[in-house]
Write a structure and sequence with these properties.
SH3 type barrels; two-stranded antiparallel ribbon; alpha+beta
Length: 252
Amino acid sequence: MESKDRRSRDRNGGQESVGTVLRSMALSLVLVGLTFAFVIGFRYFLKSQTYRPAEKTEVSQKKTDGTLVLEEDFNIKYLMVKNVSDQEEFCATKQPGIVEDDDLRLKNGQILEVRHKGLYKEKPYYRLKDGTYVEGLESKILEIKDYLPLTGYVAITYISSGGVRLRSWVDFEDDNVVKSVYVGDKVNIEAMVTTTEDVSAFRTDEGLYITTNPQYFTDYTNLNELEKAVEEASEEEEYTGAEEDTETGTSP
């Protein structure tokens, strides 16, 4: 009887040991799973906290004057009006493309001071110094590379029955002759203009244009004096720059 009780206790003890082992293993698996989940979660947390610079978005660098999308590197200061008929309303307007009754009507040979060039509704426009706008039509506008104010006159020496022609704008191929001057005539000059196509002409005090070719006249303007002054100023600047390089020990 005592032997049976001992065997029963041993069997119960063994079952309890197996149960304990199984519970320990299950607990260990749970702990391992929790540990693994913690590691994964912590790595994800760190990843989410890592600083990442925002992707650079392409920002438009286009400049505007409030109306025009401006053309970069535009450095022209003057325009000339050309080829405008008496019937046309080619104007400097307060707003691009909108002509009002009090807008300035432009005429051939007129010099305009310009500040910007750009696009408005896919069309080219210039913004003038006074804030008005002119449509950039190649048929109506010449860009002026140089505008040099002058004083004096030219005395016509060219002997010809047709004389020397004065034109309404700077293009010696166009049908834009206004009148002619003849040998012995004096023509008062107020400026010399040069287009971006390197065509030069004297502008008269009447707003007309005559060739700068010296075979047709004797030049009594102060052009040579101005050119000489510009040349001397350039030489002086070069000389000063060379002296500064010498003083600082740099080579040219």
